[in-house]
Design a protein that fits this description.
CATH class: Mainly Alpha
Strand content: 5-15%
Order of helices and strands: EHHHHHHHHEEHH
CATH superfamily: Rhomboid-like
Helix content: 55-70%
Number of domains: 1
Number of helices: 10
Radius of gyration: 20 Å
Shape: globular
Oligomer: single chain
Distance between the termini: 22 Å
Number of strands: 3
Strand order of the largest sheet: 1-2-3
Length: 268
């Protein structure tokens, strides 16, 4: 299952050329306006996306920096890079100060273009509204803290593993958990493979628990070694939901009005 941003508006290319041109200009203005609003309301989310992208394109995983070499030299550079900045469960609980910092540094390191773009897409879709509700400072602490604990939780369950663990998936999973509690009725556009990737819109209380269940099932079947740390996703999701409940439970119960939907959506 993949999630994508909801289109803020649409334009039908009908009528004469002048009408099409006017509508196209209006569309571009609307898209830029939505982007400006999202950026203004969620500067931390945008800064996290920019930072992760900058770290990736300047590192060896992107393959854009000729200083890391090519072929076998590039592979060796990637392994050394991930071991330096990523979490190694077998070393995390040895008491070495540098190892204790790796769950924080690993949040901004990604292993491939697909890894980076997938995480940034989820962060862009769900991070802005969550940050606006939490506030910039609280959201920053929430993101880093839950991401750190998600990686520590995975390491604690795999203490014998010598594989390096990188990525913001644990922190972003926490954002999904918080979003589920704060905006359960906000609609999410989903592409489902078993329905021929038809774009369908469901409320968050349907999509996100389904996603979390898939992560839990995958975590139970995952073996040690290179791959996806599904358990970190589960830990992050639970932490995010609990933090949102603890921080906004009373406020959410008092305010019984429906939560706002993402830009371009209408309340069900």
């Amino acid at each position: 299952m993949r999630l994508r941003p909801v289109t803020p508006c649409s334009v039908h290319m009908t009528g004469n050329r002048n009408t099409v041109a006017v509508r196209a200009v209006r569309l571009l203005r609307a898209v830029r306006a939505v982007g400006a609003v999202r950026t203004a309301r969620a500067p931390v989310t945008c800064a996290l996306i920019v930072l992760c992208c900058l770290v990736f394109v300047t590192g060896p995983a992107a393959g854009l920096n000729p200083g890391y070499g090519t072929g076998d030299a590039l592979l060796l550079a990637q392994r050394a890079y991930f071991r330096h900045w990523g979490v190694i469960p077998a070393e995390l609980f040895t008491g070495v100060p540098r190892a204790a910092l790796t769950p924080a540094t690993a949040l901004f390191v990604h292993g491939s273009w697909v890894h980076l773009l997938g995480n940034m897409l989820f962060l862009y879709v769900f991070g802005a509204m969550t940050e606006e509700r939490m506030g910039h400072v609280r959201f920053t602490l929430f993101y880093v803290g839950c991401g750190y604990l998600a990686l520590v939780g995975y390491a604690a369950a795999n203490t014998a593993s010598g594989q390096s663990l990188v990525g913001a998936s644990g922190a972003i999973s926490a954002v999904l958990g918080a979003f589920l509690y704060l905006f359960p009725r906000a609609r999410v556009t989903s592409l489902l493979p078993f329905l021929f990737f038809l774009p369908l819109r469901f409320p968050a209380w349907v999509v996100l628990p389904f996603w979390a269940a898939l992560q839990w099932l995958a975590a139970g079947r995952a073996a040690q070694g290179p791959g996806v740390a599904y358990l970190a996703h589960v830990v992050g999701f639970v932490l995010g939901f609990v933090c949102a409940w603890a921080g906004f439970g009373r406020e959410t119960r008092v305010k019984a009005a429906p939560a706002p939907a993402p830009e371009g959506e209408k309340q069900p």
